Amino acid sequence: MAQLVQSTHHASLDDYERIPHLGFGVREMKAEAETLLPRLGGRRVFMVNSTAQGGGVAELLPGLITLMRDLGIDANWLVMQAEEPEFFALTKRIHNLIHGHGDADLGNGERALYEEVSRKAAGRIREHLRPGDILVVHDPQPMGAGALLRQEMDITAIWRCHIGLDDETDETRAAWGFLEEWAGPYDHSVFTAPEYIPACLAGRATVIHPSIDPLADKNRDLSVRKIVGILANGGLVRTSSPTVTEAYPEIAERMQADGSWAPATEPEDLGLLFRPIVTQISRWDRLKGYLPLMQAFVSMKETLKADGAGLSPERRRPLELARLVLAGPDPKSVTDDPEGLAALQEVREAYCALSPDLREAIAIISLPMASRRNNALLVNALQRCSDVVVQNSIQEGFGLTVTEAMWKHAAILGSSAAGLRQQIRPDLDGCLVKNPEDPHEIAAALKGLLQDQAQREAFGSSAQQRVHADFLVFSHVRNWLRVIASTLELRYA
C-alpha cells in the first residue's frame, strides 16, 4: 500500500518569523515564493519515500512539506510500503553499491523482483494522483514506481537521490547500470553533491543540499531544565526529583555485559550530566563506522592507562572520565533497512568482548521509536549534553546528524566521507579524520578535542554559523521551488 502521512510538525511561518535570528531567512523565502508559485500553476506536489521514521529523509520531509503548505502549495507525503522483505534487502544492496560496497552481481532475478514490486507500488501510489501532479521520488526504493507512473500518467516526475560516492568503482557502475533504465522516464533529478551525479543523468540534474528545521523537536532550543526533564522522562538519567512532564511510555535501553537490553541507567547512571561525553547517533549500519569508533575509544583509554601518569590532572581527567555513547534507533522499527539487526549484532559482539572497565565507559543505547516526537527530543537532549559529537561514516550521502549537532554548537569529529565534507570545513567547523577505519587516527583526534575546551567552543560557534547560512529549511524550500518551476517550464515549453 501507499500510506499518506500526516505531518506532526506544528510550527507556522509566523512562528519562525517571530524568532529574530530566523526572520530574515523566512522573509527571503516568502519573497522568492511570490515570484515562483505562479509558475507552479496550483499543481499538487507529492513527496514519496519508503519509511515514515528512521533515517534522514523521514526527518527532512515534515518541515519541508509544512512550509510548502504555509506558502500555499498543496504538498503531501506518501510512504511506499512493500510486503516483500527481499525487496528491501535488494534496495539495501543497491544503497551499499552506490556507496562503493557490496556484491555487484545484480542479475535478471533482481531486476524481476524490483520491477514486480515497483509495479505493485505504482498501482497503490496512482490512487492518490491525478493528471498534472508533481511527483518527487526519494532514493532507489520507490524509483521504479515513480518511473512507471511517469510513463503511464500526465504527471511531472523528479527523482531525488540522497546518496552517492565521489568515485567510480565496479560497485557504483553495477548500481547505476541497474537503475539507469528507471532513471530515463524522469523529467529531472536532484543530488546532494555534484560528485554523486552518474553519467546517465549528467545534464539533467541539480544539486540541493538537505537541511534541518530549527523548530523541529530534534533541533529546537531547550533550556537546562527541559534537557534534564527529557533525559529523565526517556530513561537516560536517574533523578530523585519530580519532573513537570511524565515519563515516556517507552524508554531508552542500554546493552548489558551479556548483550541483553535493560533500562539505560542500568547497571549505573550514564553520567550524561557530569562526564565528558562523546556521542554518535545514527542508524545501525556498517557504513556508519560504529566499530572503528568503539575501537578508537578503547585505544584512547588503554593508552591513558599505560602512559597517562605523566599528564597533568587537567589533561588526564577529561580522558579518564570520558564516556562513549553509541546510540541508534530500535532496528526493528526501521522497516526499509534489513541489515540493521546484523550491524547491531556486530557491535554487540565487540562490546561483550571488552573488559569490564571498558564496558563501563561505553554505553550502547537503543532509542525508542514508538513516538517520533519523544525520539526527536531524546536525540536533541543527548546531542546538547555531548562534548564531542562524532559521525565516523565510511560513506555518507550527507549526514543530517552532523548538521543537527552543528546547529547545537557542538564540537564535531567527522570522517572525510563526501557528504560530511560538504558541511564541515576542516579545522574551522570541526575535525575530519582521513581514514574512518583507522582507530589510532580517530583516537588521536578524540584525545585532542577532549583535552581542549577552547577549541571545542571555537568549532561549535563556527559550525552553528555555517548551518545558519547554508543548511536551514528556508533555503531548502527556495531551492525546491526553483527546481520544480524550471522542470515544469521545460516540460511544457
Q: What does this protein structure show overall?
A:
Helix 7 (170-183) links the parallel strand 5 (156-161) and strand 6 (188-191). The mean pLDDT is 93. The chain folds into two domains: 2-212 and 472-491, Glycogen Phosphorylase B (Rossmann fold); 224-470, Glycogen Phosphorylase B (Rossmann fold), CATH 3.40.50.2000. The longest helix has 21 residues, at 20-40. The protein is built from 18 helices and 15 strands. An eight-stranded mixed beta sheet has the order 9-8-12-11-10-13-14-15, sandwiched between helices. A seven-stranded mixed beta sheet has the order 1-3-2-4-5-6-7, sandwiched between helices. It is globular, with a radius of gyration of 23 Å. The protein has helices at 13-17, 20-40, 56-70, 85-98, 108-126, 143-152, 170-183, 224-233, 290-307, 313-321, 340-352, 356-360, 372-384, 400-407, 418-421, 439-450, 453-470, 473-491; strands at 2-4, 45-49, 75-80, 134-138, 156-161, 188-191, 205-207, 253-255, 261-263, 277-281, 323-329, 362-367, 388-391, 411-415, 430-433.
Fraction in helix = 40-55%
| CATH architecture call of the largest domain | 3-Layer(aba) Sandwich
Overall, the morphology is: globular
Number of discrete domains: 2
How much β-strand is present in the residues?
A: 5-15%
CATH topology of the largest domain: Rossmann fold
Report, as a whole number of angstroms, the end-to-end distance: 35 Å
How would the blueprint of this fold be written?
Blueprint: E1 2-4, H1 13-17, H2 20-40, E2 45-49, H3 56-70, E3 75-80, H4 85-98, H5 108-126, E4 134-138, H6 143-152, E5 156-161, H7 170-183, E6 188-191, E7 205-207, H8 224-233, E8 253-255, E9 261-263, E10 277-281, H9 290-307, H10 313-321, E11 323-329, H11 340-352, H12 356-360, E12 362-367, H13 372-384, E13 388-391, H14 400-407, E14 411-415, H15 418-421, E15 430-433, H16 439-450, H17 453-470, H18 473-491
Parallel strand pairs: 2-3, 2-4, 4-5, 5-6, 6-7, 10-11, 10-13, 11-12, 13-14, 14-15
Antiparallel strand pairs: 1-3, 8-9, 8-12
